[in-house]
Amino acid sequence: MTLKVFITGASSGIGEALAVYYAAQGATLGLAARRSEFLDGLNARLGGGHACYPLDVTDAPALHAAAVDFIERFGVPDVVIANAGVSAGTLTEYEEDLAVFKRVMDTNVFGMAATFAPFIPAMKAAGGVRRLCGIASVAGIRGLPGAEAYSASKAAAISYLESLRLEMRPYGIKVVTIAPGYIESPMTAVNPYSMPFLLPAAKAAERFAAAIARGVSYTVIPWQMGVVAKLLRLLPNALYDRLFAGAPRKPRGLLK
Question: Is 150 considered catalytic here?
Answer without folding.
Answer: yes
